[in-house]
Amino acid sequence: MNIFTTRLLRVALVVILLGTVLAQVIMPVLASEEGKTFPEVAYLVVPYSVAAILFIGCGQVALLAVWRLLSMVSGGVIFTRRALRWVDVITACAAVATVLSAVVLIHMLSFVPGGGGPTFYYLAACVVGGLAFVLLIVVMRGLLESAIADRAELDEVI
After folding, report:
1. Domains of the chain: which residue ranges?
2. Which H helix or E strand runs over 63?
3. Which sign, positive or negative, has the C-alpha torsion 16, 22, 27, 33?
4. Selected residue with higher pLDDT from 22 and 158
5. What are the pLDDT digits (tens) for 32-67?
6. How far is residue 138's CA from residue 125's CA, in Å, rounded to a whole number?
7. Are 88 and 141 in contact (CB under 8 A)?
């Protein structure tokens, strides 16, 4: 990967990371405004804000893992067992974020007044999208494992 592409990707990762930090700061403010607008659900401001901040935190950890994988690619050492740990971190973050959002949406459907409507569709999209992403990363991890094995075999031949 050439240096321009690597730097461009790093800039993109920094911008996204800064955006997520801003979202984490703004989230409680927006949630408290919603709690004032709809006092019947004001008791959910804190737990849902915490869930949103944790969800965004999962994304931030995954972004840092992508940064590390990008460093490994630019260093030419991506085909090592160390890369698998970072892929596992991304998989775990995606799984935790999916479960977290599904729990919040199930809670909304079950216990929040007026939580019906399109919430069921959001839940379905969350579970299907999250599961698809986790499965995609698992398949990509398998491909990386195969490439690592092939690389080790080639190194023995050479």
Report:
1. 3-157
2. helix 45-75
3. negative
4. 22
5. 999 999 998 899 999 999 999 999 999 999 999 999
6. 20
7. yes
Place of tokens 């849902």: 48
> How far from 117 is each of 41, 44, 112, 121, CA to CA, in Å?
16, 18, 12, 8
Please give the Cα distance from 107 to 120 (Å, whole number).
11
Residue showing tokens 């804190």 = 46
* Amino acid letter for position 92: A
Would you state the structure tokens that stand for residue 78, as one six-digit string? 């991506």
- Angle, helices 81-111/45-75, rounded to nearest 10 degrees: 160
Write phi, then psi, for 41 (nearest 5 degrees).
-120, 20
Euclidean distance between CA atoms 87 and 133, whole angstroms: 12
Residue in 5, 103, 110, 126 with CA at minimum distance from that of residue 47: 103
Residues 6+ apart with CB under 8 A from 28: 45, 49, 53
Q: What's the DSSP call for residue 38?
A: -
The owner of tokens 């490439």 is 147
Residue 1 reports pLDDT greater than 80: no
Q: Is the dihedral of CA 66, 71, 76, 81 positive or negative?
A: negative
